[in-house]
Amino acid sequence: MPTRVQNFLSAMLGALVVAVAFGALAVGGAFDSDGDGTTTTVEAESSSASAPSSTPVRNATDVSELYERVKDSVAYIAVRSSSGGINPFGGGQRSGSGSGFVVDEQGHIVTNQHVVSNGQSVQVRLGEGEEPIDAKVVGSDASTDLAVIKVDPKDVKGGIKPLALGESKALRVGEPTIAIGSPFGLSGTLTTGVVSALGRDIESPNGFSISGVVQTDAAINPGNSGGPLLNGKGEIIGVNAQIASGGSASNSGVGFAIPVDTVKEVVPQLKAGKEIRRSYLGVSTGESQDGTKVVVAEVVPGGPSAQGGIRQGDEVVSVGGKAVNEPEDIAAAIADKQPGQNVQIVVTRDGERRTVNVKLGTRPESSQRGG
After folding, report:
1. Is 225 tagged catalytic?
2. Global pTM?
3. Is 62 a catalytic residue?
4. Would you tell me which CATH number, out of the four given (2.40.10.10, 2.40.50.90, 1.10.10.60, 2.30.30.240), belongs to the domain 10-51+73-155?
5. What is the DSSP string of 136-162?
6. Among residues 187, 225, 252, 305, which one is catalytic?
7. Is 145 a catalytic residue?
């Protein structure tokens, strides 16, 4: 369902904007891209494997020690396809690129779904100066814009070095953030900033809402997609996914990262090869003209809400016993429920309060203008 944030998001940051060969950058001093000039949008189980030390950085301005500890765990990802831009690793095929990070000693790497979608083959490079390594896509989830790819640990010189996962629910606005990735194909690029806001909602690649998103002013550009957003201890707090812009394809100081608590929920399922099924109401909502109520804007024909008796124009009071004060509350109210469960929805219609029972459906592969 659309939100105020979604109204000014330009798009995803990864595979739609192409990187260039490093030799061309060094010689020409310019970026070569045949992208369309738009940006693209946009948690994993805690690893018991060895992880970088959680020693905080020495101060807010010097993150050099942190960078040395984590840089070899950040991946530059090249996705080859029949169309796109120049192949970042050379050769005749064409491709796009993005970023990712290692989460365990088995070689699993987290990135964005939109980075690896529609790719014929995937290669990664870990650290600086390493040769590209073949990777395979283990699983992806467009609803959270997360994907898992895997490399053979034996192919990684120096060994696999997983990053530690932090928490996003405990974050506070103003805390330092560090983003590492491959903007415009420049692998190993670090930028710093702060947590600018919490609890944002952005649109996923399949049109549904991703909630609990971390906003940061650390510079994020095309090619940063799928890379880690870190805290001052070097722990993952998010997966960089989107920027807001005024039509430009570059950083505006407003970036968004999928929260690590979502990574912890989704990635273990992807690693296990499970299909992720989510509950579905089949409505889209918005605020009333005075901004005091949440109103049903559309009801998907034949969807769960339509079958349950929800109508366009109903004012939503609560879902599953949880009060609804803004449109995002509806998705949050059914997030922990499974398809097939019944949920009570209290609405006001023609000045009269009614309770409607809706049997939740299974979320389709793409949005039908309902959540």
Report:
1. yes
2. 0.75
3. no
4. 2.40.10.10
5. EEEEEETTTTEEEEE--GGGSTT---P
6. 225
7. yes
